[in-house]
């Protein structure tokens, strides 16, 4: 059988050659053989690199989605515990309920899931008074829960300096938060002032984010 000439696959060679075996990719000389091998190795490395990068991107996306989900669930727990109570910022009884962080998520991201840092707040007041909570919020924490509770909230920023939470810990916390929500929704009641604090402490423990 006649052997057809093949084009050498080394990029810097444009010759045709008669292959010894039909699978030979290059001319039978070291320059072409080694050159082609080096090129192939480099290509494989690039492919692996872009694959790993994509994998990392997907993992990051999943983590950021879990973080958002957990925040929504923690906020929901806070809202259910404060149901029927006035806005912590303004004292209004009739208001659009949002979960207002005393220490803001922007300035204190490590406290974003801490139930002792979140209370019902009017939507307007919440958006106006970003940052470290406003004076009314602070004053109302004291008048509602008493000085010791207020001081324990104030101490959070000193005690908790960072938040390291893995993907699987996030998943666990999301699942537990969901169970807490189901329980609170089925109880369907207005909690007393002391229950609002007791349950926050209890749920913080259950969630296991702040050990
Ligand atoms: Zn060649």
Note down, in words, how this protein is organized:
There is one protein chain. By secondary structure, this protein is mainly alpha-helical. It has a domain at 77-207. Helix content is 56%, strand content 7%. It is built from 7 helices and 4 strands; from the N terminus they run E-E-H-E-E-H-H-H-H-H-H. The protein has helices spanning 30-82, 123-128, 135-145, 147-154, 156-159, 167-187, 193-207, and strands spanning 6-7, 16-17, 97-101, 118-122. Strands 1-2 form a two-stranded antiparallel sheet. Strands 3-4 form a two-stranded antiparallel ribbon. Strand 1 (6-7) and strand 2 (16-17) form a beta hairpin. Helix 1 runs parallel beside helix 6 and helix 3 packs across helix 4. The chain is rod-shaped and about 95 Å long. The relative contact order is 0.11. The mean pLDDT is 93. The structure holds zinc ion. Zinc ion (ZN) binds at residues 8, 10, 13, 15, 26-27, 32.
